[in-house]
């Protein structure tokens, strides 16, 4: 008897013991078809190798579509065929170019019929140019050959298109924001940012001038009282006239000060004229006015 069988039998014979307390016998798992380790993985999914093709994988019909060289239009394809074979664009060999162009159009028709419509129009134009070149040249009335080239319009369009395409490449080579570079961004604490008034400086200047104008209108004026004596000014005028025979009217008011003093000085002169102590004379109209002492007979 094996040791494992003996231990199981002893456990079953002990009082209070049961077969349920015995350790379970090892369970044999069904055999799994193992893949030979030398089988190569045909793909990886999330880093794990795939050794066999999934049976529930759905592949859409257009998933394995073959993409041909992408061209922006019939002129782009035609220019590509000419430049690839180093043909002279001013002397295009229409037979070779038309044949290569039609082969490419046949490939487009198998995959995208709507896209092929535009290319078919150019193919018809190429065939027309080729057929016109096969016709014999006509002689004009003046026995000169008609030198018109059926390829002239096509050559002009190709040259214009090539010039625009080169300009587009140069523009595309210019660094663009978001594609070639990004603007640097820097976090700045809001409390450290100086806040300036969002007002135009000229508008602020006009508003300040309006405030000053209103302030000048509302300023306080202090009026002081000045006592002036008419008699004193009368005496001053008499003294001034005693030293000169005639004094011009304006000269009497020189050095008198402000407006109140001049007014009192003028009133004093009128009082002297009223009392016939002085005479105010004028030789003719618009002539200077003179003031002199009144003539008193001896």
TrEMBL record:
Keywords: Cell cycle, Cell division, Chromosome partition, Cytoplasm. It is found in: Cytoplasm. Pfam families: SMC_ScpA (PF02616). The keyword Cytoplasm applies. Residues 1-12 have a biased composition (Acidic residues). Residues 1-23 are annotated as: Disordered. Its main location: cytoplasm. The keyword Nucleotide-binding does not apply. Belongs to the ScpA family. Component of a cohesin-like complex composed of ScpA, ScpB and the Smc homodimer, in which ScpA and ScpB bind to the head domain of Smc. The presence of the three proteins is required for the association of the complex with DNA. Participates in chromosomal partition during cell division. May act via the formation of a condensin-like complex containing Smc and ScpB that pull DNA away from mid-cell into both cell halves. This is Segregation and condensation protein A. The gene is scpA.
């Amino acid at each position: 008897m094996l040791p494992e069988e003996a231990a199981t039998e002893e456990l079953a014979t002990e009082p209070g013991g049961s077969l349920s307390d015995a350790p379970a016998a090892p369970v044999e798992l069904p055999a799994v078809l193992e893949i030979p380790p030398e089988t190569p993985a045909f793909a990886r999914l999330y880093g794990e190798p795939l050794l066999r093709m999934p049976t529930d994988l759905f592949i859409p019909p257009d998933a394995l579509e073959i993409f041909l060289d992408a061209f922006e239009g019939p002129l782009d394809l035609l220019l590509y065929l000419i430049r690839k074979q180093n043909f002279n664009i001013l002397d295009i060999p229409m037979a070779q170019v038309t044949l290569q162009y039609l082969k490419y159009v046949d490939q487009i028709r198998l995959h995208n019929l709507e896209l092929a419509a535009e290319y078919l129009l150019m193919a018809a134009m190429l065939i027309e140019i080729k057929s016109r070149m096969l016709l014999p040249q006509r002689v004009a009335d003046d026995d000169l050959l008609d030198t018109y080239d059926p390829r002239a319009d096509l050559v002009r369009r190709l040259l214009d298109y090539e010039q625009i395409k080169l300009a587009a490449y140069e523009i595309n080579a210019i660094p663009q924001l978001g594609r070639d570079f990004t603007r640097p961004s820097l976090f700045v604490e809001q409390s450290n940012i100086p806040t300036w008034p969002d007002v135009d400086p000229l508008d602020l200047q006009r508003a300040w001038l309006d405030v000053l104008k209103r302030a000048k209108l509302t300023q306080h004026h202090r009026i002081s009282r000045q006592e002036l004596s008419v008699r004193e000014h009368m005496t001053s005028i008499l003294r001034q006239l005693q030293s000169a025979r005639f004094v011009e009217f304006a000269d009497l008011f020189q050095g008198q000060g402000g407006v109140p003093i001049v007014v009192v000085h003028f009133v004093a002169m009128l009082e002297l004229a009223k009392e016939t102590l002085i005479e105010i004379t004028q030789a003719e109209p618009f002539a200077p006015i003179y003031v002199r002492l009144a003539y008193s007979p001896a």
